[in-house]
Amino acid sequence: MSLQSMTGFARHLRTSAGAQISWEIKSVNGKGLDVRFRLPAGLEAIEQKARNLFSQHFKRGNFQAALTVERSAGLAKSMVNEPLLKELAAIAAHLREEYGLAASTPEGLMALRGVLEVPQEVIGPEAQAELEGAVLAVLDETLIQLAHNREAEGKALGEILRVQITTVEMLVQQARLDPSRSLDAIRARLASQVAVLLDASPALDEARLHMEAAFLATKADIQEELDRLEMHVASARTLLDEGNGVGRKLDFLTQEFNREANTLCSKANAASITTIGLDLKAVVDQLREQIQNLE
């Protein structure tokens, strides 16, 4: 399966069951699957079935789904509540004369609640069931479109992640080949440290100092961290090849990347290794930030 971004948008409109049905869905990243609906009056009963459709298409993400339904015009006509309109117009005229308020407009008065009465068309159970079925069918089509959009963005996101993982691999290789890790460099560093200590206190046992210096050098060795980082690079590439639904696993893996990078910096006994470790931490932070958008 392809990688999917959790960020996406889809809008789909179709005429069915005597109505124009339109769904608009936005999605952003989230730890789980969370859907919030905005449904017109009379169609609240579809919410649970609509949620089930979302869970069939997606595993993670925060979604906002808005439904608009415009039924074909029937015989019922809108009516103006003239007594209420006259009463409101008189009140507006009084307020204008008394307080010098701006003159009211017909549009403003008509917009007040109760002035314009729009009769609600009552449909029977069979027509209601047909409409609900059509609404869910259009939702399914919209979710398919959204999945395609998220896959397209996921593909682009995957390319970015692969570049960042390759950068991690290159930094690990730089640390492996760094001159400060050569045997000659280590010997020279140990000899220099022992010489400084002996000059400071000639009474110290030279053989003992060499043993302690060798122990500290072994403790500061970063070979294990480099090996684990290479293993994490291989695991990350495997997950990216595996495809959809690996965002959470990759997020956990970046925590391991970060842990090894921190240890590498703390063990570093050369400025060049410290620089590589800091560069590594920066790339891992970028990697984790991108992975937050992956399903």
From TrEMBL:
Its cofactor is a divalent metal cation. Residues 182-295 form the Endoribonuclease YicC-like C-terminal domain. InterPro entries: YicC-like_C, YicC-like_N, YicC/YloC-like. Keywords: Endonuclease, Hydrolase, Nuclease. Residues 3-158 form the Endoribonuclease YicC-like N-terminal domain. GO terms for molecular function: hydrolase activity; RNA endonuclease activity. Pfam families: YicC-like_C, YicC-like_N. Belongs to the YicC/YloC family. This is YicC family protein. It comes from Phyllobacterium sophorae.
